[in-house]
Amino acid sequence: MHFLSVHRARPSQPFRPPVYLLCALLALAALSACSSISNRVPTIITPYKIDIVQGNVVTREQVQALKTGMSKGEVRDILGSPLLASVFHADRWDYVFTFRRQGQEPQQRKLAVFFKGDELARFEGDELPSEQEFVASLDVRRKFGKVPPLEATDAQLKAFQEKNTPLAPEPTPPAPSPDTSYPPLESTR
Questions:
Q1: Could you tell me what percentage of the chain is helix, strand and coil, using 3-state DSSP and rounding each to the nearest 5?
Q2: Confidence band (pLDDT; 50, 70, 90) for 69?
Q3: Which of 35-44, 116-125, 147-156 is predicted most confidently?
Q4: No. of H helices and E strands in the chain?
Q5: pLDDT digit string, tens, across residues 123-164
Q6: How crowded is residue 57: how many other Cβ atoms within 10 Å of its Cβ?
Q7: What domains can you pick out in the chain, each with its CATH number?
Q8: Which residues of 30-46 are buried (b: 16+ CB within 10 A; e: fewer)?
Q9: I need a surface site. Which of 13, 53, 58, 91 has the fewest CB within 10 A?
Q10: How far apart are CA 175 and CA 189, in angstroms?
């Protein structure tokens, strides 16, 4: 038998597009859907932005502890090192604090401390929060409970001291008596 005569005609089958063509059409449909909702996405999904704290935190209690006539060292002990200390204005220290949180207005506070020589002459600045008000403003996500105490009790201080007292030093060996003789350090040959 001849090859051509044996060949049978196949029944007609429906057209099946290749898989890559189907994937391309699906991607086009998805992209066109994205463009129609792209105006609403920024209100639904926002990127996470970290809280940014910059500068020196100065509280009302710290400013109340300042007294005119204090030395620069005493002021530094209370307020910390200044954020700005200019070579051209050696008698002025500036303490600046900025706090930025997503969805809230940035907080900024300033305090300027003026000296005459080595003594505190005056200070001026913004209305500063107390320590508790400042801590409460940082933790706005907490909905329950109260602000933890910011000072240790006498019992806590005593327990801390007992826990952190240095051990008694080990006794040092007795020093050699002056009449002890040692071999020479260098040989004399």
A1: 30, 15, 50
A2: very high
A3: 116-125
A4: 7, 5
A5: 998 888 888 888 777 766 655 566 667 788 899 989 988 888
A6: 17
A7: 52-139 (3.30.1450.10)
A8: eeeeeeeeeeeeeeeee
A9: 13
A10: 31
